[in-house]
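debug: dumping io for the single-chain case to check the tokenizer round-trip. Nothing else runs in this session.
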Amino acid sequence: MIRVCLFLVLLTVAGCSSNTEKTATSPNIIWLVAEDQSPDFFPMYGDKTVSLPHLEALAKDGITFNNAYAPVPVCAPARSSLITGMYPTSLGTHNMRTYNAYREENQPSIGIPSYSPLVPENIRMFTEYLRAAGYYCTNNAKEDYNFKKVASAWDESNKTAHWKNRAPDQAFFAVFNFNSAHESQIWGQADQPLLVAPESVPVPPILPDHPIVRKDLAVNYSNLIRMDQQIGKIIAELKAANLYDNSIIFFYGDHGGPFPRYKRALYETGLRVPLVIKFPENKNAGSTTESLISFIDFAPTVLSLAGVTPPAYMQGKALFGTNKSATPRKFIFASSDRFDEQVDRLRAVRHGRFKYIKNFNPNISNALPVSYRQQMPMMQLMDSLWKEKALTKNVAAWFETPKPLEELYDIEQDPFELINLADQALHQDTLRFLRQSLETWMLETQDLGAVPEKELLKQWFPNGKIPVLAPLKIVEKEGQLTLSHPQKDVTIVWKSPEAKAWKVYGQPLAADLQFTAKAVRIGYEDSPILSH
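debug: decoded output
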């Protein structure tokens, strides 16, 4: 494939200002999201274990990104960055998970309730800006943003959400999530027919070469085949509606692979994700780029592609479109804190060919006994082999304590991060540079990881209760109704009696219109409903 630099790609995407109603000339944008997958399992990244024809065809039509990263190696914190353009450590969404929609209690064993972090002022789910600009925004169907979604975010967010329900010629942003590749499906699909022989799968050097491991790897490859078929159906729908050629399609994983030392690890296996972007008319089709991209860049990039100016508070860069950043990304920063009932703290930075990891709790093993992961046969095997002292050096290193205070790896020479260079004299300048870069980032982004989670809860909710937004104010003048709220960083939404979705309020409403309205903000309870 032709190799190109991301920031030399010349893409001119038709767009309008953020105050202009979007029309059919605005690009449709689709996200196809694989859960829990690393690039190493995909044919467009060199693994030919299985054929994934629909994704391979998408890669031939688009640009393959070799260095795309999640800022946290687990789903809910990573998704909070995707939907806001912010680091989870700045939002307070860095722990996995905070808002838990899947159970009545969150983590009672360590006294952590389900809660929506009280994010800094003015932070919004970026789809709100698209909707205000006329886009139809749908999510099918996983949310899991580590906070409770607000009504301003989506026209539809459910298992049947689809761009087909938009108004004629209305531009759309549509997200499709594929749970078939999730960690839980390693044991959930264990009894289903395998679509690849276990003896044929490659075993990475960080896992034992054992029949149980090979079986779990084969299940994952089989799940990818199933996911590829699901993605093929979405692409076929786009083509049947004559939407494919002029749409922008992102395919990506929400963090690294589903296995031990992949998911929840700050190594490349946990942070680096597959990413393919297909642009209108397949511009730069079949090319690859080595440029760095982080999830915090996705929100400003989508806004820029839609012709909407990204808000200044976003920490990411717009990589394409009308507001493309003039400077490339030079660093990838990442964090690791609580995973379910297990607590640790690590930070990482990648720059050029090197990765630096800071361990704040060296006496805690990287192999955290997360009860959810303990359901995986591979994890059970590795625990058993560790107790028997039967793991090879490369595999055992993940279990050992104490961890080094600092880790430094040459990613190009050591892609599985097995040789720690932190103590080598040759690399001390690099070590100091990356250590300082990480410390500066933590200060500049106001990393909340140093504050115990229970202390954050006291700061956000001093009386133990979620704050409630005050009622809206309404003023009638010359047949028009103006809605306002005393708190300036809220979003006002409204809808007519027959409507299902809330609309983002942007201009006065007719005095004879029947509607309901309310104010919303991440971390707050909605204001009381105003009926007119």
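debug: round-trip ok. The mean pLDDT is 95.
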